């Protein structure tokens, strides 16, 4: 992992902090970005505290990527002893997310948004 602030997309992601975008013609779906620079730590080695979320008209989170709380990593042969900070939400399911850099995080988020909108018939 590159040092915080020295990889593509880091400043772009920080610039999105506080932004809310309506992303469909009917105004029913919107995304929200909360992004802050923090001192790198074992929990946030990339130096970011972030939450990128997609919501429906009722405000329900449909998809999101964040590192607000630890989740258990579950894999074969383990019982979830390892904790991950970076993770993704899809409705009520939560899975670890392997953060590589800010640009990839943004691309992965928009891919998840597109997938949900396609499933709901908003995108073709």
Q: Notable features of this structure?
A:
globular, two-stranded antiparallel sheet, 8 strands, 124 residues, 19% helix, 6-stranded antiparallel sheet, 2 helices, alpha+beta
Structure description:
By secondary structure, the chain is of the alpha+beta class. The protein has two helices and eight strands.
Question: Quick gist of this model?
Answer:
This protein has a domain at 1-61.
Q: What quaternary form is this?
A: single chain
- Could you state the order of secondary-structure elements as H and E? HEEEEEEEEH
Order of neighbouring strands in the sheet with most strands: 1-2-3-4-7-8
Number of strands: 8
Distance between the termini: 35 Å
Number of helices: 2
Portion of residues within helices: 10-25%
Structural class: alpha+beta
**Radius of gyration, taken over Cα atoms and rounded to an integer in Å:** 15 Å
| Unreliable sequence segments | none
Q: Calculate the mean pLDDT score and round it.
A: 87
Work out the strand percent.
Answer: 25-35%
Shape: globular
Report the major sheet. Answer: 6 strands, antiparallel
């Amino acid at each position: 992992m590159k040092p915080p602030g020295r990889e593509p997309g880091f400043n772009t992601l920080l610039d999105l902090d506080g932004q809310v975008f309506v992303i469909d013609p009917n105004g029913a779906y919107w995304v929200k970005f909360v992004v802050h620079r923090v001192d790198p730590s074992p929990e946030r080695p990339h130096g970011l505290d972030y939450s990128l979320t997609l919501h429906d008209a009722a405000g329900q989170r449909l998809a999101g990527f964040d590192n607000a709380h630890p989740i258990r990593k579950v894999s074969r042969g383990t019982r979830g002893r390892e904790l991950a900070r970076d993770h993704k939400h899809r409705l009520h399911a939560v899975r670890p997310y392997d953060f590589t850099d800010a640009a990839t995080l943004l691309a992965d988020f928009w891919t998840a948004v597109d997938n949900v909108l396609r499933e709901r018939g908003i995108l073709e």
